[in-house]
Amino acid sequence: MRTDTPRLGPLGDEQLDAEQEAIIGPFRKAGADFGVSRAFVRHPRALAAFRVWATYVMIDRNPLPEREREIVALRTAWAIKAGYVWSRHIAYAHKAGLTDEEIEALKRPADARGWHAADAALIAATDALVADFFIPDDVWARLSTHFDDRQCMDVIFCCGHFCMLGMFLNTAGVPIDKDVALDPDLDMRATGSR
Q1: Assign residue 160 a region: left if phi > 0, alpha if psi is -120 to 50, beta otherwise?
Q2: What is the SS3 assignment for 90?
Q3: For the chain (length 194 residues), average pLDDT per consecutive 10?
Q4: Which end of the chain is more exposed for a tag (fewer CB within 10 A), N or C?
């Protein structure tokens, strides 16, 4: 969290026009009527397009397994200090099989925990993408040892997805949903910076 004052905060039901309601309806039906969609619905066309992409990146049509997607999602969220994304994805990470210890370890340097080689490659690739928007040859070699071409592409797409989403949520000032907790290490409201 970067601010206590939402710039583009979530819209309540009474604020939705017919087009916005049509977009929010499926989120409500799926039990995913969260602040992110309520803020994003200010731009219905963008939210409709985003929903298609987000469904690909984070749901069953993606060839990168769920656990691996959550490693990339959480590592990206931590690296870019996206408190909303981090908070929202803890439950998804648990569902995907990550332990509390693994989730906590995603906050630290990769060599601080004895990750399996495939997990370490995911973390190194994510770190490289966030830091330099590029995966160097040595990290690519490690990644492609464990994942096929499509999965390697999906690592890039997943990291990029959460960078974009984190930029929106941080800048828009979307508050953390009431059903999840903000990690105190990601509460930057006092400084508004990293």
Answers
A1: alpha
A2: helix
A3: 86 96 93 94 95 89 94 98 96 97 94 91 98 98 98 98 97 94 85 53
A4: C
Domain-embedded: residue 118: yes
> Are 164 and 84 found together in one domain?
yes
**Cβ neighbours around 100 below 10 Å, total:** 10
Q: Is residue 178 part of a domain?
A: no
Sign of CA dihedral 76, 70, 129, 164: negative
Statement to judge: residues 75 and 167 lie in one domain: yes
Please indicate, yes or no, if residue 191 is contained in any of the structural domains. no
**Does residue 175 contact residue 1 with C-beta atoms inside 8 Å?**
yes
Q: Which domain holds residue 29?
A: 9-61
Which of these, 55, 186, 76, lies nearest to 125 by C-alpha position? 76
